[in-house]
Amino acid sequence: MNDPIVPRELKIFTCNANRALAEKIAKHLGKELGSMRVERFADGEIDVQVTESVRGADCYIIQPTCTPVNENLMELLISIDALKRASAARITAVVPYYGYARADRKSSPRVPITAKLVANLITHAGADRLMAMDLHVGQIQGFFDIPVDHLRARGVFLDYFLKNKPKDLVVVSPDVGGVERARRFAARMDAGLVIIDKRRPKKNEAVVYNLIGDVKDKTAIIVDDIVDTAGTLTVVANKVKESGAKKVYAVATHGVLSRDGVDKIEASALEKLFITDTLPENRKQSPKIQVLSIAHILADAISRNHDGRSISEMFN
User: Fold this and answer.
1) Domain 10-151+296-315 is in which class?
2) Residues spanned by CATH 3.40.50.2020 within the chain?
3) Which CATH code of 3.40.640.10, 3.20.20.140, 3.40.50.2020, 1.20.1250.20 fits the domain covering 154-293?
């Protein structure tokens, strides 16, 4: 069987959502960002022009669909269309944070599955492949009719805590849905596992009913993928502390931290929250929040994909 033909030139582009991350990725790859203009008409419509040749190139467009979600999503879709019409050989949408991911099923009657709708939009815009970091649920990969590389940020958190490993460590899953994520983290840290039995009376509000496991006199690390308003995280952190934990830390790939999320973190029992730079660092700063970069992971994935090498080997 013949090897696939790899397009001759690698080009990295970005829109406006997180240019700092795109610049880090390009630096890791030893590349300059491609030239593309993303502006607005007077009425707010998005105006995109690729201002260099991409004919026959292997193009990667880096754009998390974060706040303002709809603006950033449309920038991504229009940029993909521009690259396609400019005769790019292959277009990969690199979406470090995949917005609308929490609308992944019909949780009640007459509601949309918006994560699937966004997948359709990206595919029909002309993307040949998607790269995303820590999708909210793995099933989103199946919403796409193009290949999806589901990358993991777990390694950057493990590197930090393995170098600064506390004694009597326990890993906490903030809900039943996150058990597998927390279990994998606990296995790598050789730590125990605690599960929180949580309910949501309404959106962005959580009530903890039970704590399954022992945290007394231990250092706890809460492992999650998204911190939005920080309501759930801080409720869980306070419950873990009240149950006897010596110290409580948290790690989450996507630090959305909307509304008064940072204030909640500062007022909580958390010692520190570790997030990554999948989202731009333009939020309120706090000494309790530390940002770790995942640029090298995305850069390695892009390099491997361009060269036709395995991406799954990165996480073995």
Assistant:
1) alpha beta
2) 10-151+296-315, 154-293
3) 3.40.50.2020
Q: Which residues pair with 134 in a beta bridge?
A: none
Buried b / exposed e along 35-46 (16+ C-beta atoms within 10 A): ebebeeeeeeeb
The 10s digit of each residue's pLDDT in 160-209 is 999 988 889 999 999 888 899 999 999 999 999 999 987 665 665 566 66
This prediction's pTM: 0.92
Question: For the residues 250-270, what does the mean pLDDT come to?
Answer: 95
State the Cα–Cα distance between residues 29 and 12, nearest whole angstrom.
9
Q: Which of 11, 116, 198, 264 is catalytic?
A: 198
Q: Is 198 a catalytic residue?
A: yes
